[in-house]
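Whether sequence alone determines local backbone shape is best considered at the level of individual chains. We regard such an encoding as a compact summary of how the chain folds. The sequence in question and its structure tokens are set out directly beneath this paragraph.
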Amino acid sequence: MKRIDLIYNKLLELSRPDGISASELSEILNISRANVSFDLNRLWEEGKVSKSSGRPVKYSISSKGQNHSNNETSLDRLLRKNESLAEPIEGAKAAILYPPKGMHCLILGETGVGKSMFADYMHEYATEMGVKKKDSPFIIFNCADYTNNPQLLNAQLFGVKKGAYTGAENDKEGLIEKANGGILFLDEVHRLPPEGQEAFFTFMDKGCFRRIGESDTRTADVLIISATTEDPSSVLLKTFTRRIPMTIKLPALRDRSAKERLELIRDFFEAERIRLDREIAASLNTMRALLSYDCPNNVGQLKADIQLLCAKAYSDFLTGKKREVKITSTDLPPHIKEGLYNEKGNRILWNETLGEKINFFKFSKGEDDIVKQHEEGSIYDIIDRKVQELRLKGVSNFDIETILENDITKYFKMYIRGAENAISRKNLINILGEDTLLLIDKMFYYATTTLGRNFDSNTFSALALHVNTLIERLNSNKTIINPQLNWIIKQYPKEFQVAKECVKILEDHLKINVPEDEAGFITLFWVLEKENREKDKVKVILIAHGESTATSMADVANKLLGEDYVVPINAPIEVSPLEVLGALRAYVKNDMNPMGYLILVDMGSLTTFGETIEKEYGMPVRVVALVSTLHVLEATRKARLGIGLEEIYKDVVSMNSYMFEHTYDRAVKEQAKKLAIVTACLTGEGTAIAMKSFLSHNLRYDKDLLEIVPLNFADKHLIKSKLKEIEQDKEIIFVVSSFPIDYDIKQFNIQDVISLRVINELQEKVDIKTTLIKMEDVISENIQGVDGKELYRDILDTLNRAKTILRMDLPESTIPGIILHIAFMVNRIMNGQSPSEYNEKEAFIEENITIYNAVKKSLEHLERKYLIEVSQDEICYIMNFFR
């Protein structure tokens, strides 16, 4: 029997009219008070028990008792756990029950608040109340999926008559017909083009519609529930909103109570437990972090984050890394772990909702569970199949773990994007004005339909900013010569013709002539998106001594990853290095990949080949020595994902912890430079300058320490040299660009910045870098007897050594704190002061021996240079920064 059932049955048995406290029940059942209180509150939320309002709180069986009211509806059950939804649920009931067949309504709320789930509840309520039949359809349609192709969007909704347009070979039923007798849910309805909204007027008024290309009208009985993240008055036609009298506003997760958020967390864990058919354990700190971390994408993000934690824990269980599906705070990604950092501010909240005595919250199987296999295509199904396949091939658990990590991350990236398109459009309206944005819509629609290609939202944002500055230039009688015009016309004739038509759209709107040079610039937007999809990737070449050593290692990697990607070159003992170099030269000469080459070698003179190839062919090359099959797998996996050469090189090198002595970061040796943010575009200065202005208004920074540098390029191949030139006297924190740059600097695309999705991350990077610049002076002013600036650089070196050994990154927000901690530690030891004894030191070291050894090894350089000896207690205090 489950613990919660045991507690409920004891309440039934005792049947005290005045109730019983959690403490009394705890003593009777010999169960911790925290666990009893936890389960009693769940029973209260389910309506099975009542509780008193005084102190101590006393619990008793509710009037509903064991036999819950059969009249309770799905919306009533939703309200019981979500008190903040009282008003939305009241509105939903009114909309469904409004005679004769319900009232069309609009659900408002931020991304991820659960608008589609709420609409599903409304449909269930409609069937429960007999407004809709039990088998009535509930059709979900996301208007954003067709935002750049209005014709296809309307075809999906209203259907198509055979021959209505090229490719319409058969009559096609639309979603309105499919939803007949039920509910059609239009998500992101603000993406419905004006003509689509107008087509809905007639349908909502009279229940009539026409398929595309059809003259006869059709009828359907469909209740329309739509949803948007935007202000309806600014994104929807007034004639459309007038036909939707009921508006329902859902609260953001941050506006809901901690009790509600905890219930959501429990429900999501319980759902994963049922999918896994296995107990899931989450530590107290894990639950605290999930309860407190910033969740900008609301309930949807909370659910996806919990699914990712469960998937990784299940992977660790299958590979033998853990004995059970258990999640601890060390498994949390940085953005969730940040929920633990404000312990002082959250301590009362945690104690009230979670208690202090439960080490692990266990989500266990109940007797009434329906046991089922992992549904096909689920993340758990993918993990099971992958593990089985790799084990049959003899792959070790350690290597399986490495491969699975990428698969799990890719699976959950499906959720990550797609949330900010509406937000960015709102910001674009603020920057450009609605007229300009409608103009971009026309140009985008023409390009999409003519080229038969869908463009991403970043391309849309970049084009919008460019056209805005183009209009300003033309209004000021300023023109820019496009030096690549002839080359663009020759290289991209189809895209250039589309750009010329876009220029005509501009001319019709502006009533002035637009130079042909501008068509050349606009062409680049259609080309860049295509090139980004088709761009080359870093090539991985494996050279090893022996008749077939390289071939065998490459064959293992290629088979495991399902693609012949690694290029093997064998180096038999009797063959001279010069002949092996000749084989490498022949391959590179025939390939000439601008993304570069990662050459993996086993030993000897082979390590010098990279420099020779780079000089002779001008291609970027990096060489990694002493490689194993695991190195080949990791390098190939990252190369196939399109990751840049420098990042792959660093990741592969970092796999050899014994190589840390040779990976000293060059930046540590340099004096502090002024900081820079670069905004870059390929089509004239306008976009880059617009982004500089946007960042200047949305970021706080010291203009004496940081400069925002706008760059424009007619040729994207010039950008690397320009960035290197800037780096001569500035440290570039990040780049905001309308196109991807193969350069080892953090990059953000325009779409993410304008949507404000990453603005907090940008601000944090600016704050941290500014703090680090000032850190040398802070150390110099507070520590006597040493060169503060030199000690600062030595500490950075120590941290880099530790990170390399542990193959991990520290959260940027913790770096200033750990630098100061180590600096004052050095000063304290030099002055002969002893640290406070670390509580339960031996057990802590034993539990975290890997971190202990890494920190101890990394500190040896400081010990030698400053003639100090760092005690175990000091090492333990430092270890906390790496946990």
Observations:
- Residues 759-782 form the longest helix (24 residues).
- The domain at 783-882 is CATH 1.10.1790.10 (PTS-regulatory domain, PRD).
- The CA atoms of residues 576 and 582 lie 10 Å apart.
- The first strand starts at residue 20 and ends at 21.
